[in-house]
Amino acid sequence: MRSSAFSKKTSAMFQSVPVNVFSGLVAMIIMGLTAVIIITWSKHKNLKFVHVAQIKKIILYPVKSLRGVELEHVECTELGLRAENWRDRCFMIVKSGRNFVTQRQEPQLALLTPSLHGNQLHIDGPGMETLKLECLQKLNHSVKVSKCRIFQDSIETVDCGDEAAKWIQNFLKKDDFRFVQFLPDFRPRCTIVKMGFFHKPKQYSFALQDESAFSLLSEESVEDLNSRLSEKVSYRNFRPNFLIEHCQPYEEDNWTFIKMGEAIFYRVHHTSRCLVTTVNPDTGIKSNKEPLETLKTYRVTKDEKEKQKFGKTPILACSLGLEEKGEVHVGDKVFAVIDN
User: Fold this and answer.
1) What is this structure's pTM?
2) What is the spatial distance between Cα 217 and Cα 223, in angstroms, rounded to a whole number?
3) First-residue to last-residue Cα distance in the chain
4) Cβ density class 174-188: b for 16+ within 10 Å, e for less
5) Mean pLDDT of 310-337
6) pLDDT 10s digits, 4-46
7) How far are the Cα atoms of 69, 99, 150, 244 from residue 112, in angstroms, in the given order?
8) Does residue 188 have a cis peptide bond before it, meaning omega lies within 30 degrees of 0?
C-alpha cells in the first residue's frame, strides 16, 4: 500500500512539472555531461609536454634474451622498434612443448651476439661458427606455423629449421631447443588499459616481449641503484629499448605520456624485474640474487592496481605502449606529460 501510494505521489509530482521546465532540466543534464566529456577529451588530446631528458642509446633485440643491437635511429611501430626488415624480439628460442626460453633458464644466452646484415641475422657465440638466419617478411606456403607459449599466452610462430636448431643445441649442450620467428601477419598479444570513465579501454599490442612493446630506463636510475650495490650492474641487465639521460633518478615513474622524436607513447605501467637482471651480461653467470634483493628494499610498487599484477616483485623502468608512430634518433630530446 505504501509503495503504491508513493508511486502515485511521485507520478503526480512529475505531471505537475511544466513540460518546458522538465525539458530544460533534461537539457541541462545533457549539457553538463557533454561538458565533462569535452573537458576529459581535451585533457587527453591537448597534452602539455615538457622537456625532461635526452635519448642516450636505442637498443633493438632481434632475438628474445640475446644481446641487443645499438642503433642510431629506428621506426616505432605498434609491435615495437623496427629498423628496415628487423623488428624488436622477432625471434626467440623454444624448448620441448614449445615453451619460450630466456636467460632465466639459460643464463649463457647472454653471451650470444646478433648482428643485422640485410635480410640475414648473424648470431655469434664463443666457440661457435656464425649462424645465419633468414628473416621472413610474410607468411608463405613453404613454412610451418606452430603455436608457442609465452607465460599464459599462446602465439603463432614459424620454425627456423633444423640447422638453426642444431646450432643452439650445440651451444647449450641440450637436445630440445629450436629457433622460431614471429611474423607481422600473426595475431599479437596485447595489454588493456582503462583510460578514464568516458573513454573506451585502450589496447596496446606487442609480440614476443615480456610485458609491452617498448621499455624505457634512465641512466640516473641505474646509477642510483649502483650506489646501493657492492657489485655494480649495467643498464644491459635491464634490457631497455631506450636508455635516457639528464633527468633525476626514477623521474620516469611520474610520466604518463612520453614524446621522443616523432613518436608518442603511453606509460602502461612500471616494468617488473625478474631473474634475468641477476645475469652478468658479459659473463653469462648469475649472481647471488642481486640486484633484485636490493631493489626489493625500496622499489616495490605502491600503486594498488600494479600491486595486483606485480605483488612484491621489484620494479625499475617503464613499459610503454605506442600512441603515435614515428622515427626516433639517438640524441632526440625526451618530452613528457608529468603526473602530479
Assistant:
1) 0.85
2) 11
3) 54
4) eeebbbbbbbbeeeb
5) 96
6) 544 454 455 445 545 554 455 545 544 444 444 443 444 446 8
7) 11, 20, 21, 25
8) no
